[in-house]
Structures are given as structure tokens and as C-alpha cells.
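Reading a protein record of the kind used here takes only a little practice. An example makes this concrete, so a full record is given next.
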Amino acid sequence: METCVDISLYPLKEDYRPLILDFIQQLHKAEDLRIETNSMSTQICGPYETVFAVLQEGIKRSFDQSGDQVFVLKILKIADDTHH
């Protein structure tokens, strides 16, 4: 199953920009994922298990390094046209 997750990160610190950029940079290290970033969010698309493994690791790392922050996730299952 393929999925896309739209992520917005809101660090609860004045100097928030480096924390967001570091999180995005870590996501780009993952293989087999399509990652697009715009001014409001980052979208990660790929195999369900891979997407959520990368997110689990990335969010934990971000909490451990940066403390208080808010993640907003929107999750979409990508339609599989082979069953229609």
C-alpha cells in the first residue's frame, strides 16, 4: 500500500527555522520515498511501512533534540489503480 503524509512542524522556540530544516534534511536521507517541501509543509510519499518507519524515527529524534514542538500530520492512502 502506498501512502502520503503531509507534515507541518511547529517548534515552540523563537529560533525555529534550523529545527525545521534539520527535520526535513533527515527525511531526505530515506530511500524509496518521494519528498516535496513547500512553504507550509512537507509531503512524504511511498510504501506505507517505509513512510511510517521514517516518520517514527524522525519525530522521536526531533523531540529528543529539540524539546517542545507540535507536529500536524495529514495521512492519505494513494489509490491503487490495479484493482479497478
